[in-house]
Amino acid sequence: MPARPRELTPDRGARHLFGAKMRTHRERAGMSLDGLSDVVNVSRSHLSRIETAEAMPPPSLPPMLDAAFGTDGIFEELFVLAGKEIHDDEFRLRMGLEARARLIEEYIGQMVPGLVQTEDYARAQFETFNPRATREEIENLVTARMSRQVRLQADDAPDLSLILDEAALRRGFGGPEAMQAQLARLAELTFTRTTVIQVVPFELGGHALVGGSLTLLTLDNGTKVAYEEGISTGMLLEDPNTVAAHQRRYDRLSKCALSPSDSAAFIRSVMEALPT
Fold it and tell me: Which ranges carry the HTH cro/C1-type domain (predicted)?
C-alpha cells in the first residue's frame, strides 16, 4: 500500500504555498513526482521536499513549472516571495526595494556581495557564519541567495555598480578552487552592458566607508534609499539628507578606486597568487 502523501500547510507562508500549488497542479495533470521529474529535470526526492516546504525550489524550476502547467507566471511570483521569507524583516524590505531598483550601487569591504557570489562561495560563507546549521538549512540559504541574482539576467536588469575592497578578494571562502571560480566571475563582470566593478587596493589607505558595507538603490520612481549592513544586522535609511551624504561618500570612493580594466587585471593577479 503506497504511503499517504504528507499533509501540506499552504497557510504558513509563500514557500509552503509554492509546494501546495505544485502538488495541486501536478495531481490535476495526472502526473507523478517521477513524471514531473522527467519534465523539469529535478530529482524526485528534491521535488518531494519542495512540495512539503522542506527545501527551497531552485531558480530554474518556477518557469519550467509555469510552462508545464500553463500557470502564467504564478510559480515565478511565489518563488520571489519565498526567497524573501528566509530573511529578517529589515532585509526583506531591502529586497523588495532591490526588486524595484534601476541602479544598484554597493561597497563591501570583507566579502564578495551576494548579487555576484557563486554557489560554492555562498555555501562556504553560510557554513562559516553558522557551523551548526544543517545541510538543508544551508542549501535553502544558498538557493535564496541565487534567486536574488535571477533579475540580473533579465532584459530589464538594473545597472549594477560594485566597489570591492582588496580584502574581499584576498579573504577566501571555500578554498582555492572556490575562490578561483568566484574571482573569475568578478573579472568577467568588471565592465559589461549592465555591470561595473572597481577595486580599492590596500595602498589607497583609509577611506570613509571602511568598517561596513553600503548599498544605494535608485528606484523606478527616482527615489534613492540606502542600506547599511553589519555582521548580523542591517538598517534601511530613507532620509534624503542621510542618503545624499552616503552617495557622496560612495562617489568619492569610486573616483579613487581602480578603473574597471585595471580592476580586472588586479583580480586576475589575485587569482594567479592562489595556491593550485
Answer: 22-57
